[in-house]
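Hello Y.,

Per our agreement to keep a running log of every chain we model this quarter, I'm adding this entry. I've kept the format consistent with earlier entries: sequence first, then predicted structure.
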Amino acid sequence: MNTVIRKKATICIVGKSGEGKSSLLSAILEKKNLLPSGSFGACTSVITQVEANLNDSNYTAEIEFISKEEWEKELKDLLTVLSDENEDMNEDLFEIAEEKITALYGADADKKTLEELKKYDKYAEIENLLSKETQNSKKISKSDVSEFANDIACYVQNSKSSHGGWFWPIVKSVTIKIPNCRELLEHIVLVDLPGTGDCNKTRDDLWKSKLRECSSVWIVSDINRAITDRDPWSILKHCMEELGPGGECKSINFICTKTDEIDPVAYMRAARLTENQISKDKDQKKMCILHRNELAKTTVKEKFENSEIK
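Predicted structure for the entry above:
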């Protein structure tokens, strides 16, 4: 009997940190708080791939790191940026360098030289993670979803309130496998991608290769910023350029999140809605949500129709 191996469909989810990508994924998977919500910062996202665990009932993660040589070169570059006292220095690059070094090595590490950093305990720990003996990867397996989420947090997000021990700057990608999701994920892979222009070249190249392999792209944006923000539209343009002729992508979807976050009274005033239009006898909040959803959908479609992207 011939067995046909069906290729899995890959859905790539893109958008700025904080736009609700993790919450969207958790809702689809019906696994609350499985994926840490995106934290604020200059550059904190890593490529996270979610698929079904068809082997056992554990939540598992395989964390792939960049090479030791790549990090040594990048660390020197970051320290060079931080030591630049030129008034014309790039503030974005400075913020990224500061955030990466303090995330890994701790508070005030951004003020140290390379030789001083080498004396830190964290420096030896990071060297060990990136050594060839560890095969540049780490595996985590837990039966409890809360314990699993806590264990993977330091590899996929950052904290502004607690410095040191956040390893996302040296992570290339994370593959998470979820049990009891065969019906949903047996033939689908969900890939949460960081925004365009990632500050790590290796991760940025992987971002582009993943995008070219995807069957569908979901561009996620907060409903309040979907129309006015440039970011989702620049991501859409980037997707069109990267996919190009011969790509596997069959559809690009624009998804607005946080639609339930609304003040009905303030929205009615801003949208100039009368009580006749939004009946008091009905759920006012629900009516306002539906009105804003329809308005956003119409406006996004009009903007796309009139854009150079189309």
